[in-house]
Amino acid sequence: MSNLKKFIKPTIYVVLILFFFLLPLFVKETYFIHVLILVGINIILASSLRTIATTGQISLGHAGFMAIGGYTTAILVMKLGISSWAALLLGGIASAIIALLVGFPFVRVKRVYFAMLTLFLGEIIRLVITELRAFTGGTSGLLNIPPPDSISIGSLFIITFDTKVAYYYFILVLVLITLLILYRIESSRIGRTLYSIQQSDFVAESVGINVISLKVFVWCVGGFFAGIAGGFYAQFVRNLTPDSFGVMQAIYIVVYMVIGGRRKFFGAILGASILTILPEIFRVLKEYEPFVFVGVLFLVIFLLPGGLVDLPQVITAQIRKHRKVESNDA
Amino acid sequence: MGLDIFVQSILNGLTSGWIYVLLAVGLTLVFGIMNIVQFAHGEIYMLGAYCSYFLIKSCGLNFWEALPISAIVIGLLGIILERFFFRPFRNKFEPSIIVAIGLMLALQTIAVVGFGTDTKTMPSIIPGVLRVGGITLSWDRLLAIFTGIVLISALFLLVQKTKIGQAMVAVSQDTYAASLQGIDVNRVSVVAMVLGCALASIAGSLMGSIFTTNPYMGTLAITKGIAVIIMGGLGSIPGAVVGGLILGLIDGIVPPLLNTNIANIFGFVAILVILLFRPRGLFGHE
Amino acid sequence: MMLEIRDVTKSFGGLLAVNELNMSVKQGEIIGLIGPNGAGKTTVFNLITGFISPTKGQIIFEKTNITGKPPHAIASRGIVRTFQQSAFLPDFTVLQNSATSCYLYPKGNILEAIFNTPGYKKKETAVYQRAAELLKFLGLEPVKDELAENLPHGYQRLLGIAIALSAKPKLLLLDEPLGGMNASEVSETIAFISKIRESGTTVLLVEHNMRAVMELCDRIVVINFGRKIAEGLPAEIQKNTEVIKAYLGVSEDATQC
Lengths: 330, 286, 257
Fold this sequence. Notes:
The complex is a heterotrimer of chains A (about 325), B (about 290) and C (about 260). Chain A is mainly alpha-helical. Chain A is built from 15 helices and 2 strands. Chain A has helices spanning about 1-5, 10-25, 30-55, 60-80, 85-105, 110-130, 135, 165-185, 190-200, 200-205, 210-235, 245-260, 265-280, 290-305, 310-330, and strands at about 150-155, 155-160. Chain A has a two-stranded antiparallel ribbon with strand order 1-2. In chain B, strands 1-2 form a two-stranded antiparallel ribbon. In chain B, helix 1 (about 5-35) crosses helix 9 and helix 2 crosses helix 9. The longest helix of chain B is centred in the N-terminal third of the chain and has 32 residues, at about 5-35. Chain C is α/β, with parallel strands linked by helices and about 260 residues long. Chain C folds into 2 domains: about 1-10 and about 25-80 and about 170-185 and about 205-255, Rossmann fold (3-Layer(aba) Sandwich), CATH 3.40.50; about 90-170, no CATH class. Chain C is about 40% helix and about 25% strand. Chain C has 10 helices and 10 strands. Chain C has helices at about 40-50, 70-75, 95-100, 110-115, 120-135, 155-165, 185-200, 210-215, 235-240, 240-255, and strands spanning about 5-10, 15-25, 30-35, 55-60, 65, 80, 170-175, 200-205, 220-225, 225-230. In chain C, the strands form 2 sheets. In chain C, strands 6-7-8-3-9-10 form a 6-stranded mixed beta sheet, with helices on both faces. The radius of gyration of chain C is 19 Å and the shape is globular. Chain C starts with a strand and ends with a helix. The interface of A and B includes residues 113, 123, 248 and 258 of A.
């Protein structure tokens, strides 16, 4: 019996992955596919932010890394004619490089200050992008970014990015790769070490863990994937403006992570999914829609401080409590 | 740059500076006493501006009647905020950020729903200019600076001479010791919040009148506000004054020479460098 | 000489926490570092293990100058310390605490961890095996699956020692390991410290429990106000007038309050 148990989780994952791959076959509504693409982007952003947060550091500037990735990818394709695939990778690398440049001084400071440092970094990135008008188009933005290059295998199998579905599969693959890598980091020895830094950085340091280097490492990894998300975003919406990468956007990513639940890997995915879909469902409310978002936020922060991932636990605890009370009355 | 423009830039800088000070003082006060960064403070400032706008446009008051009424209304809002939104999360960094973010969105949406997204203007708080030598000084800016100086001086007196002021100092230095001395930490928190909100409201009203009002001015303000309190030292009122004036002067002098973006970049990079080399800021203690 | 502290001074502002301290540790010995509260003992630990840097002087370990190196580098050279306040990873179980602290041995590789290679899996098994053995060595096996923060105080202090041992120290710095322990816990821990030395680890012990110090230590160094005031065998130290004055002086002031 225990042999079978080992296969339950992997089977669920395979079924889920198959489900998402086959989804476009029975869901034709392009709006729905569009929303799922946005969910995918936000999953990458929230999960990469969460990886940085495993060492206890909350970044309020993650949108800045997304911006670097987006603009780098777009500029490389448009001004240097590089293949969109290479440009995407280079977008992620550019973000990681910026992360590396500021990393060492940043990670030394206390958590409160780190949060504020990253807030300012995000703003500086946005303002610099706005200033470098020649490259980035400034406030009016970078327009008419080409879609990803077509993929052709032989002359039979050709994928061109002129439909939402093509982008859907693209982001699906990116999400899977990202989650795989981040999950492996989390659940392996590396993750254990990172989490120890959050719990007690001086204990970690005393047993030989290079706390500063590891913090910079996850900071760069997080930055890299945010850059990839940005590069995809650039090729998807095909117009970039610096205002898409401001303080509010950075804050939304943090909200996705915290409302979903920071403690578990799935939390960031859950938060990003629910909080991306929710505003779309309530779009009819127009300018009143944010109240729904805010309502969910307050419900969670007051009732489920550990995030939505705690919901099953809390429910079963409540059920148990009620059963106990009933059996006491009986 | 001609002398007239230079002096006007300084004047603009000091005006922005004192507005930043009024905004940042509340932020630093709340941090010192409740140990949280009140991210929605910018939205309070924005609501102050809209409150004054509403009183002037719809109730026919003049600016100097609207200003204190807004301050009182927003200050009372602070009581509700402290009691229901921030007291449960005092000293808790992460949850307090999320609550503040929620409030940011809520308050911003209220403004959008109530007034629309377009930029509003208010009639000048006092028209006309003062001519000294060859230099032109707008009365409204001079008056804003005067208001700032008066209010901050009053605050200093409050902190140093009154019982509640001394209680605030005690709590910000050591909350536990203060409670052992019999100080009601909850009451002190409420006072800090109310003061902070009232001052932010005044700052917003001044900004909204001398410049413009829109629902997004709060987001711009909070980043500036945090920059000021970092530069001055978290929890330090004198620090907020010095930091606010420095950043204000940068914002006054650099844009005419270069542009607003560069002024902001310069300001934020300066804060970054300060944070890295002297995290406790100019006057902070840690 | 395994460890040499040469003319080390540490000043905080104007305050001299450690004042031209000279001492050394021989391989294989248990050496005690004692002194009244505030004498500077934990500062000495912080200096040796790199948590702070000396204002003046040098620290030499196995003929290499380790002055000013960061704590993780000093740990990988073989000096590991415990902490005066209970220091462990609260959200982890006892076993996870030890396994995480086995970070240095075996040395990990990021790529093999991400790709979950067979080599990585073998290392993981080895890590958990060594962690389990270590817990057994210190009598922590019964609580190995308990969350560290739920442990009673005595076990938490033992866990602190287990964490340090996981990093395979050549020189182990114990900062008041018996703090807050009852009599039977103290006896057990004294036995453990002996066992640690027998297994080849040199020990530098800071302790207030004089019975333990006299029983365990081959040699004792006494400091007060950051200066060495006496050094020698336990029997000599017990009779040393300077030492008695230092300790009595403190308690005299206390009764005069």
